[in-house]
Specification:
CATH topology of one domain in chain B: Rossmann fold
Radius of gyration of chain B: 22 Å
Number of helices of chain B: 15
Shape of chain A: globular
Number of strands of chain B: 25
Order of helices and strands of chain A: EEEEEEHHHEHEHEEEEHEE
Distance between the termini of chain A: 9 Å
Number of strands of chain A: 14
Helix content of chain A: 10-25%
Strand content of chain B: 15-25%
Oligomer: heterodimer
Number of helices of chain A: 6
Number of domains of chain A: 2
Strand order of the largest sheet of chain B: 5-25-24-21-20
Structural class of chain B: alpha+beta
Largest sheet of chain B: 5 strands, mixed
Largest interface: A-B, 29 and 32 residues
Structural class of chain A: alpha+beta
Radius of gyration of chain A: 18 Å
CATH architecture of the largest domain in chain A: Roll
Strand content of chain A: 35-45%
CATH architecture of one domain in chain B: 3-Layer(aba) Sandwich
Helix content of chain B: 25-40%
Chain lengths: ~270, ~475
């Protein structure tokens, strides 16, 4: 599928800031399921690309003159391919390291209780069956509802609330996978035809031996298709966040995000 | 065990060991009152200099003087040769291991170390994966804790590859001793240690980003409330470099700058004395105000060298420690010169069962603990303490290792009622830059309580000056 993407983030500051610095994980990964035809990032005064430990392309964006707003615009064309939600293990990232707990994906007693039965499914019917059953059960248990959580809400509290958005679903799924002994990681990216998504999307990838990374999007009850574009992977949102930054001064902020992902002819 | 069961650095087999011959004669002919006088003088010297140490855990951190002992620990040239070659070998292996686990991971694929022991370890930092560092050095400054059990046998108790401290005591102890006992230094060929700051600066400059000819080096401290702040200020001053806090630095366009009265100045090497977790709020703990936002970008872009490198903790992790002999063989193709203490890894059922059945004989440590906290010394513990610790182990066995209690050597020490033997260890400081070096000496820590085997300053340990004797006809002294 050939996708035309444009994504604009505007931070309006209540007071002027004297300096700001951000990490932007807003460049499609080099993966077997996607190829970037063109891609432009603009807005910040200075932008410099680097590669983080997870192989994500990151731009360090710095502003050193007084500013009362920050605008980040990305746009480009990406061609995707349907891999039935499976990516082979060839990105150099050892799966086992994703078994480590992070503050956002810590397992609570509640999550452990929810996930444990799927360990039996895993033993009886295999990894894939267990992961699909887990995704369905999670989608049933957690209502997709914005306004109850933030990007830094830990899986445990989102699970207790019973409501959340795609980040929460991804975090809960990662925590649940750890309970049944499967490494699982966070993916941030874009989704074409998303239902009501105005921001970037997030889902999860679990590692299945002999197969590779298998994607699960509990918020949409499906594995990734060619409607998905991968930007970054990591153990959780904090490591794969599309935009994360700090500034000196600036008071409060208002953020507005506009994402458009459209299929275009080749 | 009675005290006589231990190897003593000064006396053995009823006689005085060679390195101590003249010193023992001096000590035995000096009245206790004179020693007491020098001891008091030493204390007032240290109060003037202001070396203090914050102790965590009680009253939210109290400042106090680490006891200094006026009796030196003396090491012969031949003994030092073993220690020096041993720690250099060890640190070379640690650096090779770190380079490997963050790049090709050959040791994991070879099966010499269970891969999950590294990959699922909290001390492993995926943020460092695939990064090539100048000269492939990660642990630029390493402190290797060594104990001795007999004339020839040295054990490494622990490796410190993160931000080891204590070197300022090595330097200050020597200065104090030279003022207190000038005659002894005239009589003994004690190898100098005062060039350590110079060597440290050479090391830091040697790992600057490669296009930089005259690198700017700074020392990054968490600030004056840190227990080792004195050392940070001391080393920065000795090296003639800026002592900075996170707020003094900023990242712009991938470069690190220091704020100065004459405007921003580019920084190329950061000798950081703050933990990984606090280095960059955009990568590690978001709530950290001690670090520099953007530092990991600068580091991965090769614009700045952070010393020690992020992620070195995987090399000095207590669970990895057990594999150090294998690590040395794997990377260097050599047999370890210094021994490793046999280690029971309690995540293994067999080791756990053994440990629980032998707690009164063993030392049990938390895998991620340091400073002698959260540690059980079986032979010195009460029944109640052992049972309380047993419950902790059973609740989370993965978090612990156990080792046999070593018969740490003793060294004569000035105590209330005169001179008496106390247990000691030794931490030499190994520098890795253009080459791997160690100044002849280190920090000798002494357990001031009779019979105690815990030398950590946080647990009431003191320090001694460490004299490494030069070989006859050694090169001229600096």
């Amino acid at each position: 599928m050939r996708l035309q993407i444009s994504h604009e983030t505007v931070y309006s500051l209540t007071q002027a800031a004297s300096r700001s610095i951000q990490y932007l994980r807003l460049t499609p990964r080099v993966d077997r399921c996607q190829r970037t035809e063109s891609w432009v990032i603009e807005g910040p005064e200075r932008l410099r690309p680097w590669t983080d430990g997870y192989g994500n392309t990151v731009h360090v964006a710095s502003e050193s003159t007084t500013h009362d707003s920050l605008v980040i615009r990305v746009s480009g064309v990406v061609t995707t391919r349907d891999t039935a939600g499976v990516l082979p293990l060839d990105d150099g990232l050892p799966p086992d390291m994703f078994l480590r707990e992070t503050p956002l994906t810590a397992v609570s007693a509640e999550i452990a209780g929810f996930a444990r039965p799927f360990a039996d499914t895993r033993a009886a019917e295999g990894d894939i069956a267990a992961l699909h059953a887990l995704m369905t059960a999670q989608a049933d248990a957690i209502a997709f509802e914005a306004g109850h959580t933030s990007v830094f809400t830990p899986a445990a509290s989102a699970f207790s609330t019973g409501k959340g958005v795609c980040q929460d679903h991804a975090h809960i799924f990662i925590a649940a996978c750890r309970v049944i002994g499967l490494p699982c990681r966070y993916v941030s990216g874009y989704l074409a035809f998303g239902s009501g998504d105005v921001a970037t999307h997030a889902w999860a990838e679990a590692f299945v031996a002999d197969l590779g990374w298998v994607s699960f999007d509990p918020a949409n009850r499906q594995s990734a298709t060619d409607a998905y574009v991968r930007l970054a992977v990591g153990p959780d949102y904090a490591a794969a966040a599309p935009v994360i930054g700090v500034r000196t001064g600036g008071g409060g902020e208002e953020v507005s995000v506009a994402v458009q992902v459209e299929q275009v002819q080749s | 065990m009675s005290e006589t069961a231990f190897f003593d650095e000064m006396h053995s087999g009823g006689g005085v060991r060679a390195p101590y011959d003249r010193y023992a004669a001096w000590l035995h002919s000096t009245p206790v009152e004179t020693l007491k006088q020098r001891h008091d003088q030493a204390n007032s010297l240290f109060r003037t200099v202001g070396i203090t140490f914050n102790v965590y855990g009680e009253d939210g951190g109290v400042e106090r003087l680490i006891p200094f002992d006026i009796v030196p620990r003396i090491i012969s040239a031949e003994e030092w040769d073993i220690v020096e070659r041993g720690v250099i070998q060890r640190v070379d292996a640690l650096n090779a291991f770190l380079h490997d686990v963050y790049n090709d991971q050959e040791i994991l694929r070879s099966g010499r170390i269970p891969p999950e022991l590294v990959l699922t370890n909290d001390a492993f930092r995926p943020e460092m994966l695939g990064l090539r560092l100048p000269r492939s050095v990660y642990a630029h400054v390493a402190g290797i804790d060594i104990v001795r059990i007999d004339a020839k046998t040295f054990y490494v108790l622990e490796d410190n590859a993160r931000t080891p401290s204590g070197v300022s005591y090595m330097l200050e102890n020597r200065q104090a001793m030279m003022r207190l006992f000038p005659d002894l230094f005239a009589a003994y060929p004690v190898a100098p240690v005062s060039h350590y700051p110079e060597l440290l600066l050479d090391t830091l400059r040697a790992v600057a980003p490669k296009e930089v000819e005259d690198p700017t080096v700074v020392l990054l401290t968490p600030g004056q409330y840190n227990s080792a702040y004195f050392e940070h200020a001391f080393l920065a001053q000795e090296m003639g470099i800026e002592l900075v806090e996170g707020q003094d630095l900023f990242v712009d366009d991938g470069d690190v700058f220091m704020r100065t009265t004459r405007g921003p100045k580019r920084v190329h090497v950061i000798y950081r004395r703050i933990d990984d977790d606090f280095l960059d709020p955009l990568t590690f703990r978001r709530d950290s105000t001690l670090g520099v936002a953007g530092l990991m970008a600068a580091c991965r872009l090769g614009r700045v060298t952070v010393c020690n490198a992020v992620g070195g903790g995987i090399a000095d992790d207590k669970a990895i420690y057990a594999y150090m002999p294998e690590i040395i063989r794997f990377y260097l193709g050599q047999e370890p010169i210094l021994k490793n203490v046999p280690t029971y890894t309690l995540r293994r059922k067999k080791d756990l069962d053994y440990t629980l059945a032998h707690l009164p004989e063993l030392v049990v440590k938390e895998v991620h603990g340091s400073g002698g906290y959260g540690m059980l010394v079986g032979p010195a513990a009460s029944k109640a303490e052992i049972e309380a610790f047993r419950a902790k182990i059973v609740a989370a066995p993965d978090g612990f290792i156990a080792q046999p209690t070593l018969a740490l050597s003793t060294c004569p020490t000035f105590v209330e009622d005169g001179i008496a033997p106390r247990h000691v260890d030794l931490r030499p400081f190994v520098l890795s830059g253009q080459k791997t070096t160690v100044v002849p000496g280190g920090l000798t820590r002494v357990a001031m309580r009779q019979g105690s085997l815990v030398v950590n300053s946080s647990q009431g340990g003191g320090t001694k000056d460490t004299w490494v004797l030069e070989k006859p006809h050694a090169r001229p002294r600096r």
